[in-house]
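Weekly puzzle thread! Below is a chain. First person to post its structure in token form gets bragging rights.
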Amino acid sequence: MEYEYEFVVLALYHNGIPFDVVGLDRREVSGALDMSTKLPRVLGDVDSREFAALVLPGVANGILKANGAEEPVDQQTVFLNPVLQETVRQFHREGKLVAAICSATVVLAAAGILKARRFTSPMGDNELFKGAIRVRQPAVRDANIITGVGARPYHFCDLLVEALAGEEAASGYREHVGIHR
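Winning reply:
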């Protein structure tokens, strides 16, 4: 969803954390609010050695507005995309931070990295979550995995900032957005 993406981008940007925006394919996309983002890089071309983390915003069923056309988006197609799944597994194998908010938590489950890990998600019972430990919190970190509920992106972003820029930056972020741990 747009706001999940935007909150993450703003949290990273304002804390001086470098990032790239990458898509499953190369196009300009617009969400429900017609805010557009160019996707200059394709996920399949990403070299994990270039990055400290992989962060996935939520995915909604609906209409994707891309390059002037509209096309349906099916969450399951995105969740089960083999390139996305392998990228998640690769970052996880390398011990890098892997984070997902809202429906994107299903991608982590489908990639098999949530087994025996604590996670949070607004997504209901899904067979893919079998073996994972669901907690009822706005966001949670378990080792190198961060998950968050989309309706509470500030908490998710707090854990991202802490993991990537340290507690001092996260403390400043929390003060700025008015949240507490």
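Puzzle host: Confirmed. Bonus trivia for everyone else. The CA atoms of residues 20 and 41 lie 8 Å apart.
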